Amino acid sequence: MPRKHFRRFLPTHQAVHEHRHLRHFGPLLKHHNLWHLNRNSVAGGVAVGMFAGLIPGPVQMLMGAILAIVFRVNLPVAMVTTWYTNPITWGPLILAAYALGSLVTGEPMGRVTDFEFDWTGGDWSQFLPSLYHWFLGLGETYVIGSLILGAILAALGYGAVQLAWRLYLLAYIRRRRRRASTPL
């Protein structure tokens, strides 16, 4: 099983409860699904991570962790899954979310303003404020589209993990039966 290979990367329960920063959250982190690698916990972690990955800003992993604790799914998987949003995938995901939001709200797609930042000689301390104002311009259309896209990606991620886990298990059982039926 792949679980055996992943277990060496996961912290033990003892290490989590004794960690100086996590010690204060002890009761919240005690649920067994937060750390065990089973099909439902991992699939739920992927779903939570896919949803939390669409939250703009640097709080994606934190939101993934909070949602994993609330829904009691695999915490490390949820946090790592948020990494699907990166500088390469970020632009297309924003456009997809805005397009979905415009379909739902009836807002025309052409309303998106250009991102105004002087890339050649601009003051880099103005990059984040410019990005913030650009996001504010997207408004409720983006927020609604982002929630819908997050839900779709979460459902697809959950289903993909469930299916992949099931297919792996069936192949493992077939190999085991074949080995058992083969005479020595």
From TrEMBL:
Domain DUF2062: 22-168
Membrane is among the record's keywords: yes
Listed transmembrane segments: 42-71, 83-101, 142-169
Annotated InterPro entries: DUF2062
Keywords: Membrane, Transmembrane, Transmembrane helix
UniProt-recorded name of the protein: DUF2062 domain-containing protein
